[in-house]
Amino acid sequence: TWIGTGRKSCPLCPEEKFKACYSHKLRRHLQNLHWKVYVEFEGQKMCICHLPCRQLKSSLGSDQAQGRLVAHYHCVVCSVTIARKTDMISHLKRHINKGETEASYSGSSDVPFEDPVPGGQAYEIMKELGTNVQLLPNHTTPQKTDTYFSRKMKTNRQLVFCSLAVLAEDRNPLECLDAFGATGIMGLQWAKHLHNSVKVTINDINEACVKMIKENCHLNHIRVEGNRTGRQLDGAGDADSPIASVEVVKMDANVIMHLRPFDYIHLDPFGTAVNYLDAAFRNVRNLGIVSVTSTDAGSLYSKSLNVTLRHYGCQIVRTEYYRELAARMVLASVARAAARCNKGIEVLLAVALEHFVLVVVRVLRGPTQADESAKKLRQLLHCQWCEERVFLKPGSMVEENLYRQLPCQCHGSMPGKTAVELGPLWAGPLFNTGFLRRMLVAAVQHNMEDIQPLVKTLICEADCTTLKPFPVPGYSALSNQVECGVVIKTLQKVEEADTSDQSGKRKTTGEESGNVLKKIKADTSLEHPAFYYSIHRHSIRGMNMPKLNKFLQYLTEAGFRVSRTHFDPTGVRTDATLAQFKEVLTKYSVPTYSSAPQSSAAGSDRRQTL
Q: Which ranges carry the C2H2-type domain (predicted)?
């Protein structure tokens, strides 16, 4: 910044700390203070900064705030501010270990906001799946920013994208809604990669978010549409013409879902999504898809039981299978919301990871389908001693002793009440194998290498087998297109065979929807077993248990269906009871000190001889 004639101020120091001076003094100041302690990464040098870049608490006074300002570095990858040089070097090494070596551009915000960015904050350009979005420095703190963004949700965004890509193959054009846009990255990825096969609507109730979404649209050369008219792009062959178009709406999510029908709706509020389920199912089209992301881990993972009862109407306790319990609890809320609108659901995907629970369901219109879905909501009987569990049998008959339904014998050997009733929970399957296979093809087509291992695990889990459905090798540019085309045709036939009449086409007659339901009933024998057991939780004391893959092989040889599960890396999904599970585990476990008894016996013989 020029001040006066021939004088410059330091771009990395506040004016009250270093006044404007001539260029030779400024150069000496930069060399001795800023450039001398730089950190280099991928050919870029990060100099130390003395500007008030960090977000300070508004409760502190101005004198205290100025006293807390310290020199710091800006990470070129994630734009975080770190005070010490050694800490910044360690931070960059963690980025390298994660494979995050692509530097982001960070500069002064020249975005034409009506309300300028406070304090001249810097913004970061972040790239994910070929889509650029600009972020504010405090984008990871929802309490301090409107445009919240989390890098930890990348897996969630890619799973949602693949589910939309599968539906887009069957319906064209497809009207889809991102009800909580924030930065708009999810809707922009849909429009940028699926092009004219989808009509994307990005909604957010916050004015700042809407402005940020529109700026991110221009950043990715995507045209912003104010209404549905004229969505066809003119001049598609020009290099400067927009590659796609989206509609950006400022409206409450419940209002827009009540006003307009959609084929695909994604709900990802900050926290629970139960407040938006009724509106989502009111206008979603028949055989459309609703995906719900819940991030209220405290209530889902049994840490805040009062909040769980208030939001989901479920009674739960902390168990070894708490993640699957959370997924079934969310699905129960989804099924009840759909039934209130005379709609049933078919679960296509349910994923519960550390930071979120994602469920993807297909909507089946009609009271018959709604009744069938409601019948899959059951209570779960959970033994508090051995953690055996079983869904209670449906029916209105009063049973004298519910403990008889449990395979374990803890009630006979332990005093008092040994089991509790949990739920109501979703008792149906959590996966659709044909849909997951098509999602894997979509992940390969769009180079989503991060989620391919997860989707493969889900496919094995859906079939309850340790065998891989089919390998996905590293494709070359040409073979990728050829092999993907063959796999797509094969998997479409598999999908038609597995779930006929569920291709996503609009159907209005009750007979066709009834055929869908009959097919689902016929496939119930192929459902995967409910829940899983942790091999470490049920290990025998003083015994070395076998490796997990070996143990899966032993269970298979014993005649049980078995697979690994994404819910728990040490979990085993099987149709064996807990007693049978422990029996096989005990059979193939080796004593920890197998040589100790022999050595002690030899010592006693030696003493007798002497």
A: 73-100
Residues of the chain with CATH 3.40.50.150: 124-225+244-393+404-433
Q: Tell me, what DSSP letter sits at residue 565?
A: -
Handedness of CA 343, 346, 351, 352 (dihedral sign): positive
Cα–Cα dist 388/462, whole Å: 21
Closest to 435 measured CA to CA, from 513, 503, 358 = 503
Return d(Cα 53, Cα 119) in angstroms, integer: 8
> How confident is the model over 593-600, as a mean pLDDT?
48
Q: Using alpha carbons, select from 451, 424, 422, 430 the residue that is nearest to residue 324.
A: 430
Whether 574 and 560 have beta carbons less than 8 Å apart is answered as yes
Number of CB atoms found within 10 A of residue 453's CB: 11
pLDDT exceeds 90 at position 398: no
Residue intervals of the chain classified under CATH 3.30.56.70 are: 532-591
| CATH 3.30.70.270 holds for 124-225+244-393+404-433 | no
- Cβ proximity of 178 and 210 under 8 Å: no
CA pair distance 323, 342, nearest whole angstrom? 29
Q: Residue 368: CB partners within 8 Å, gap ≥ 6?
A: 344, 510, 513, 514, 517
- Distance CA(568)–CA(554), nearest Å, equals 20
Which SS3 state, helix, strand or coil, does residue 225 take? strand
DSSP state of 33: I
186 within 8 A of 198, measured Cβ to Cβ? no
Q: What letter would DSSP give residue 45?
A: E
- Non-local (6+) Cβ contacts of 313 within 8 A are 333, 424
| H helix runs in 171-206, sequence order | 185-194
In angstroms, what CA-CA distances link 389 with 83, 174, 465, 491, 529? 51, 42, 21, 35, 12
Q: How far apart are CA 348 and CA 346, in angstroms?
A: 6
Tokens of 600: 């002690």
Residue-wise pLDDT for 96-117, tens only, equals 877 676 655 444 433 333 333 4
Q: Look at the alpha carbons of 586, 588, 589, 594 in this order and tell me if their dihedral is positive or negative.
A: positive
> What does the alpha-carbon distance between residue 440 and residue 526 come to, in Å, rounded to a whole number?
21
- Using only the alpha carbons of the chain, give its radius of gyration: 29
Condensed to tens digits (0 to 9), the pLDDT of residues 33-77 reads 888 888 888 778 888 888 887 644 444 444 444 445 678 888 888
* CATH, domain range 532-591: 3.30.56.70
Q: Which residues contact 24 (CB under 8 A, 6 or more apart)?
A: none
Amino acid 12: pLDDT: 86
